[in-house]
Amino acid sequence: MTELSLDIADTEAMERLGAALGAHLRGGEVIYLRGDLGVGKTTLVRGLLRGRGHDGPVRSPTYTLVEPYELPPLTLYHLDLYRLADAEELEWIGIRDLLDATSVALVEWPERGRGVLPAADLSITIRYQDPGRWVLLLGQSAGGDWLVGQLTDKGS
């Protein structure tokens, strides 16, 4: 497991981290996003999507559970499982049909999908600190380790 710990000063820095991560996505990745409400998980996703060319709104899919973003050659799925009553609901929305070699899943509150969600390639934990945020990126597969390595090599 490869890890990278970062101090993030502000919203712009969180978006830059997201953009740097997004630049290296190849497809097939599952990324878990962990942290308290309002800590910056969706801000990171917004930076990732903007870095890949999305110029529309980016909202947390708290009520819809999943927001798809077609950004050829990949489709990125932003999932927010905070309001998920039962992990089996993921089967009803067709989670297995969404995930393939041309998609990326960005999953907030992954513990609520335990037993149904595939394992993470990369786990990102965000915590409040004064000032800013502390972010830990932890590779949990060869692909996740590679992603962390790309960010480490770039000094992100």
Helix and strand pattern? EHEHEEHHEEEH
How far is it from the N-terminal to the C-terminal residue, by CA? 18 Å
* Number of contiguous helices: 5
The Rg value, from CA coordinates, equals: 14 Å
Count of individual beta strands:
7
> What proportion strand?
25-35%
User: What would you call the shape?
Assistant: globular
Q: Determine the mean pLDDT.
A: 90
How many domains make up the coordinates? 1
CATH superfamily membership, which one? P-loop containing nucleotide triphosphate hydrolases
Query: What's the level 1 CATH class?
Result: Alpha Beta
* CATH architecture field: 3-Layer(aba) Sandwich
Enumerate the spans where pLDDT stays under 50 for 5 or more consecutive residues. none
Q: Provide the spatial order of strands within the biggest beta sheet.
A: 1-7-6-2-5-4-3
CATH topology: Rossmann fold
